[in-house]
Write a structure and sequence with these properties.
It is built from five helices and no strands. α2 crosses α5.
Length: 114
């Protein structure tokens, strides 16, 4: 699922950033840069998956009926669809991430500041 994908993304970003280190003293800065890159994305994905879990586990009642009605009648799914993995906007954002590109751009901006 998305957790495994985030793991691969994180490995790519971390590998690219650590590959830029020229000496051991560079590593703490690389790790801070890594966290600043990854935390917003992973926090957002975690929040979305927690929201999906709440949506899928609704007890029988009006909210569950409304959710089921959206699942049955909304074609194609629109932004904000209860199942984020079928939300075309969220899917595009989730699956278009380029870890190598993001890491190298973050490194370039970091160097400009130094």
């Amino acid at each position: 699922g998305s957790g495994a994908a985030l793991g691969f993304e994180s490995a790519t970003v971390l590998g690219k950033l650590l590959g830029q280190a020229r000496q051991q003293a560079d590593i703490p800065a690389m790790l801070r840069l890594y966290e600043s890159l990854r935390r917003p994305r992973t926090d957002l994905v975690r929040g979305v998956t927690q929201k999906m879990a709440r949506e899928w586990m609704l007890p029988d009642g009006p909210l569950q009926v409304d959710r089921d009605d959206i699942f049955v009648h909304e074609e194609p799914p629109l932004q904000g669809y209860p199942n984020a993995l079928q939300d075309p906007f969220f899917q595009r954002w989730l699956y278009s991430f380029d870890g190598e590109k993001e890491a190298l751009e973050a490194w370039r901006l970091y160097r400009e500041k130094c």
